[in-house]
Amino acid sequence: MFTTLLKSPIPFSSSFNSTQNPSKTQKGNHSFNKNSKFSVSKTHRNGPIKMPTPPWMKGPLLLQPDEVLNASKPTTKRSSNNNSKAPEKALFGKESGVRGKKVMKKIIRDVEKLQGNGVLDDNQIGKFEEFEIGNWLEEIGSDGEVKKFDRKMPWVREEEKVVFRRMKKEKVLTQAEIILDNDLLERLRKKAMRMRKWVKVMKAGVTQAVVDEIRLVWRNNELVMLKFGVPLCRNMDRASEIVEMKTGGLVVWCKKDVLVVYRGQNHWLTSNGRRVFSNLVSDNNSTMSQEKSNASTWGRSLNGEDRDENNQPVVGSLYERETDRLLDGLGPRFIDWWMRKPLPVDADLLPEVVPGFRPPTRLSPPKTRPKLTDEELTNLRKLAHPLPFHFALGRNRNLQGLANAILKLWEKSLIAKIAIKWGAQNTDNEQMANELKDLTGGVLLLRNKFLIIFYRGKDFLPQGVANSVMEREMALRRCQLIEEDARVKVAETFQVANEPLAKTSTVGTLAEFQDIQTKYGVLEKENNELEIQIEAQKENLERELRNQERKLAILNVKIEKSATKLAKLNSSWQTAEPDLDLETITEEERECLRKIGLKLSSCLLLGRRGVFNGVIEGVHQHWKHREVVKVITMQRAFLRVIYTAKMLVAESGGILVSVEKLKEGHAIIIYRGKNYRRPSKLMTDHLLTKREALQRSIELQRIGSLKFFAYQRRQAILDLKLKLAKLEEQGVASPQG
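The structure assignment produced for this chain is given below.
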């Protein structure tokens, strides 16, 4: 039978597709059978087909015709539906690119699509589920054993990394939500939304006047609306706490800068009109509030809230607890604080005068200057910016209590940050800062109308360190006295017997030094201090004198340069000689022309350039259409105005009618004359041009200013010389005294 199968006349291509072109099929088979090593046996139409085998397979490979893939090129056109892929294309087809995430994702999508379309049969699905893709590849060892790869394939997704997301902030239940019933709370909130009248809370905060006004509104209404201004409008949570604490009400609704406060269910008025609150709540409300509080406590415990040694929940964040620990013992807190917690110390409640208070002892470390550099000052300001406020201050004077508290704070912190209260009357941050600087000796880092920041300084000594320094100095003095006593005893032992004890020499002893200091130390100290002060003042005056003389020399050089430029400009023009044969007009004509000139709406403005060739051209252009021209000048000195008028008459050849004082300046009215003839050339050559006239005006202004400043320098030099002469007289008289 096997021989019969090999001699079967059925061609190999007929097992793939019987509809193909015979000529092409024979040609393809002929080329395929040329391979001497691999050949396919000719079988019947429904018989098995012998396929080429790899070198390591000993037996033949026989496959059924339906199990063999069609490797020939199809002659039919491709379908227009590009989305439909053949199963073998999805598994074995080439993809764009050789490697990368994009290619691997595309392969995975194709495999998943095959699974979804049910292309794989049950056996293949079972095998696919049994083995992982990474274990499909096998390796033939030298001993013939098959070894499996346990490595992960590139397209195998790694396990998801653990990402700790930031937990959402738990919503804290308000007092109204804990105490009040839900139906009642909903009714109050709907009513609050319709309210249109409110009580205004100003900068000073929730004062006693605001509390009294709230109680007055509560007499007739169960709700009152509060509208907050700066600074409480910036922190409405803090505003709610202050209102509930001072009034005893419950905040049921909040929007932007508005709060609505409920007076409570058990509210009534006493005979004095004051508010009385009952601490007892109905059983229903108490049960509901207990359940809500338990639920909130349970939620906080689940979130891992900090607890103390007694397993009680810790109130406040670590930031608040550390600041409270820092401020404990410094004084009462400021309950009207408008920013976030912790609350600062209320400096106005501290004592104004502290008995026995004195500025602290200061001592700089060796080779250290107490003055701050610019870089250190900048760094300290940056360091102080995120720190909380330690004190809130509202008065300008009598700050010994605050200074004492600042000194205690400086033992734990480098910086003291003081906030100035909003709404406090007549606050002066400069006076506050100066008094605190005198009392504490600190370094002022920053001061404005909102805050004051002090640094304790490099030479600050805490109280314990200052006491240790004083004890050390006292110990050194005791040692000096002990050494002196020992020296005296030794001197008494080795003295000559015939020489009396009273004549014992004290040369080089501590007693001699103390005697000299007692007799002459004060006088020499006073004389030395006076001489040092005189020498310092003399040195300052001499330095200032040299500075003024140098500035005067610079001004003189500038004056010479300006005068040279001005002389050059003045030499380039000359005024015209006045015409002796002038035309005369009567007084009636003059008055008539003056009125006509004042009524003229068109005029010629004369600016800082003065009279130049363009002005004369403008005068002639005016005279082309009318007999009178009105020239307005901004010069203030009347003599300068008269000089300008005479110059205009001489250059234009007209007749001066009058010079009038107007609101915007002086008006010069010029009549052209009865025998006026328009010149052939309007612009004259002997006057300055417009640019040269501007340069001349600038140089005149410059030289005037320079001469004024030079005069001031000369006066200052004379005053300094007089002061220097007086100091020299004092220096000569002091040694004689």
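Interim note for the steering committee: The two ends are 153 Å apart (CA to CA). The domain at 318-363+373-461 is CATH 3.30.110.60 (Translation Initiation Factor IF3).
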